[in-house]
From TrEMBL:
Pfam families: LIP. Gene3D superfamilies: 1.10.260.130, alpha/beta hydrolase. Keywords: Signal. GO terms for molecular function: triacylglycerol lipase activity. GO terms for biological process: lipid catabolic process. It comes from Actinomadura rayongensis. Residues 1-17 form the signal peptide. It comes from the Bacteria. This is Lipase.
C-alpha cells in the first residue's frame, strides 16, 4: 500500500524487448507449486538477476502462472552454511501489468519512484550476501487482475517464489538451505500471510524468520480508514482484489456507473497514477445504493471473505518481527499491534517494534525508507543463528 509520497515520477523506460515472456503457455504445464515455467536473464546492479515465471496457486487453490526475479548477489555470503535466500514481497506497485516489479526493477515499463523504494529492500539484503527472490504476485505482468492484499493468493505466491529460487539451477541455492521473508505495507501483509501459512503450505522450506512492516492485517478496519483519504486508491484496488479472488461477491453488481468505470480504469494504473487519480474518493459514490463499502462487510458473502483474509488466525512456526510507525497515515498502527498480540496469544515468537522511525507527515512512506535497514539486519541475525525471544506481553 505504499504510495509515492513525494509525488515525483521518474521518466518511463522503454518497454521490455521481450514482452512475450509474460504470456504463459496454454495450457499451463503440469507440475508442483514453485516449478519454473520459463526464465530469462534480467539486469540489476551487484547481482546476477534472472526473471522467472513459476507455478503457484490462487485463492481457490487453482494453478496460476506468476512472474518474479531471482537476484544472486555478487558479494559472497560470509555467514554459516550455504547462502540464504529471502522472499521479497513488494509493496503496492499498482494494478496494471506495466507495474510488475520484475519489469520496473530492471528499468523496464512503468519505472517510477515506487521502483526506487522497492530497491531499498533488495539492495540491503544483497549487500549482506543474501539472495533475494521477488514475486510479482498473481496478475501483475501475467494475465488477469491482481488480487490486491488477498491473503491466500499472496501467501502462496511468496512461498512459491522461494521454491522457484531454489529450483533455479543458476542460483545455486540448496533445497534445504536457509530462507526468510521480508515485506512492507502490501508486502508486509503478504509476508505475514506467508509466515502463518508456511507450515501447512510449504513445510519443507527452512524459513528462519519473517519480517512484516506495517501489515494490513484487518481489511474491515482499513475499509473505514482508507475511504475518502489521500490513499483512497488502495480501497479501490482492494475491491478489484476481492472480485478477482472471490467472483461470487459480484462487486460490479453493486456498483453504479462511476463504480464500474473505476473497475475498468483503476485496474490499469500504477501506484502514483492511481493515488493522484482517486485521492479523497468516497466509496459511497461508487455504489448503486449510496452506501460505503464498509457497510457491506458484515453481510454475506463479504463477512466470510473478510474473515478469510484476516491475518493472525494461525501461529507462525518461525520467529517474526512486526514493525509499525505510531504515525502511520495509511495503515493504523493498532492493526499491526493487534496482529502481534494475536500471534502472541497463540504462542508465537513475536517481536513488535512500534517505534519505526518515520516523520509525522507521510509516515507510511517515510517509514518505508528506514525499514529496509532493520529488515535486513533482523533477517541477517536469523541466518547467523542468533537467538531471539520476542517481546510478547510488553506492548
Amino acid at each position: 500500500m505504499l504510495a509515492a509520497a513525494t509525488l515525483i515520477g521518474v521518466p518511463a523506460a522503454p518497454a521490455s524487448a521481450d514482452d512475450a515472456f509474460y504470456t504463459p503457455p496454454a495450457p499451463l504445464p503440469a507440475g508442483s507449486p514453485g516449478d519454473i515455467i520459463k526464465s530469462q536473464p534480467s539486469r540489476y546492479d551487484n547481482s546476477t538477476a534472472t526473471r522467472i515465471m513459476y507455478l503457484s496457486r490462487d485463492a481457490k487453490d487453482q494453478p496460476i502462472p506468476v512472474t518474479g526475479t531471482v537476484f544472486v548477489p555478487t558479494k559472497a555470503w560470509g555467514g554459516p552454511g550455504p547462502r540464504p535466500v529471502v522472499a521479497y514481497a513488494p509493496f503496492t506497485a499498482g494494478m496494471g501489468d506495466q507495474c510488475a516489479p520484475s519489469k520496473t526493477l530492471a528499468g523496464e515499463g512503468q519505472n517510477d519512484i515506487v521502483a526506487i523504494f522497492q530497491k531499498g529492500y533488495i539492495d540491503r539484503l544483497l549487500d549482506k550476501g543474501i539472495a533475494v527472490a521477488q514475486t510479482d504476485y498473481e496478475g501483475l505482468g501475467t494475465p488477469g487482475d491482481h488480487p490486491y492484499v488477498m491473503r491466500l493468493s499472496e501467501a502462496h505466491t511468496v512461498l512459491d517464489v522461494l521454491r522457484a529460487a531454489k529450483r533455479l539451477p543458476a542460483a545455486g541455492l540448496p533445497a534445504d538451505g536457509p530462507a526468510g521473508i521480508v515485506g512492507y505495507s502490501e508486502g508486509g501483509g503478504a509476508s505475514a500471510s506467508a509466515a502463518e501459512l508456511a507450515s501447512t503450505y510449504a513445510p519443507e522450506l527452512n524459513i528462519k524468520g519473517a519480517y512484516a512492516g506495517a501489515p494490513p492485517a484487518d481489511k474491515a478496519k482499513l475499509a473505514k480508514s482508507l475511504d475518502g483519504s489521500l490513499y483512497a486508491a488502495f480501497a479501490g484496488y482492494s475491491l478489484i482484489g476481492i472480485q478477482t479472488s472471490y467472483p461470487e461477491a459480484d462487486i460490479p453488481g453493486l456498483a453504479n456507473d462511476q463504480g464500474k468505470k473505476l473497475f475498468e480504469e483503476a485496474a490499469k494504473t500504477c501506484t502514483l497514477d492511481g493515488m493522484l487519480k482517486y485521492m479523497f474518493m468516497q466509496t459511497k459514490s461508487l455504489t448503486r445504493d449510496g452506501r460505503p463499502i464498509a457497510d457491506y462487510l458484515d453481510q454475506a458473502p463479504f463477512d466470510k471473505i473478510v474473515a478469510e483474509n484476516r491475518i493472525g488466525t494461525l501461529k507462525p512456526a518461525m520467529p517474526v518481527e512486526i514493525q509499525h510507525s505510531p504515525f502511520d497515515d495509511v495503515i493504523p498502527q493498532e492493526i499491526g499491534k493487534q496482529l502481534a498480540k494475536d500471534w502472541c496469544a497463540k504462542g508465537a515468537n513475536v517481536t513488535f517494534d512500534g517505534a519505526l522511525i518515520a516523520s509525522p507527515v507521510f509516515a507510511h512512506i517515510t517509514g518505508a525508507v528506514t525499514a529496509p535497514a532493520t529488515a535486513a539486519a533482523w533477517m541477517n541475525d536469523r541466518f547467523q543463528d542468533k537467538p531471539v525471544t520476542g517481546n510478547c506481553g510488553s506492548f
